[in-house]
Design goal:
Elements: H1 19-34, H2 39-42, H3 53-76, H4 87-93, H5 101-120, H6 124-127, E1 130-133, E2 139-142, H7 143-168
Antiparallel strand pairs: 1-2
Length: 173
């Protein structure tokens, strides 16, 4: 994947040195998107197969933590193939819908910082280290691509959060 037709993210359009600050910015962006939104609204799915705003936020928190661990793994194992994240299964297993929105936003801020710190410490050589990325199908990627992909995830799902909330919150005229 080099660009996303749904959110218009272009991987090469993001300089690698912009990856860490972009990750850090998610904490404020998600907090702002959910500011003033009732927990019941944030937890509501617009359709059974579409995640709630809270579930998308939990997903991004977990993506950042999983990606951080994958970077570490790529430094100690030559071209590892980490287990898939099991993103859809996590929603139920980790009980995303039962989590406090305030806690999730605080955890997201922590995850943003931890992931950004790891990517910030990568030099040019480290960014070329390879990993077998499993989604949507297994393919060899470098850590530079993975950093950009992580930023893409945050941007893409922030768009999802906005779209879900627009459909659930009444407009004030």
């Amino acid at each position: 994947m080099t660009e996303c037709p749904e959110c218009s993210f272009v991987y090469e359009g993001l300089p690698l040195d912009a990856v860490p600050p972009s990750m850090r910015a998610f904490a404020g962006s998600y907090r702002e998107a959910l500011e003033g939104i009732d927990q019941a609204v944030a937890s509501k799915r617009p359709e059974p197969t579409v995640w709630s705003a809270l579930e998308y936020t939990c997903h991004i928190r977990d993506v950042l933590l999983v990606q951080r661990d994958r970077v570490v793994l790529a430094h100690v194992v030559e071209c590892p193939q980490p287990v898939p994240m099991s993103r859809d299964e996590r929603v139920a297993i980790c009980r995303y819908d039962a989590q406090s929105m305030a806690d999730v936003l605080d955890q997201l801020a922590m995850a943003c910082e931890l992931c950004a710190l790891v990517f910030e410490g990568l030099g040019d050589d480290a960014l070329t280290r390879q990993i077998i990325y499993n989604f949507p199908t297994p393919v060899v990627r470098d850590l530079g691509w993975m950093g950009r992909h992580t930023v893409h995830e945050g941007i893409h799902h922030l768009k999802d959060v906005h779209e879900v909330l627009v459909g659930l919150t009444p407009s004030v005229d």
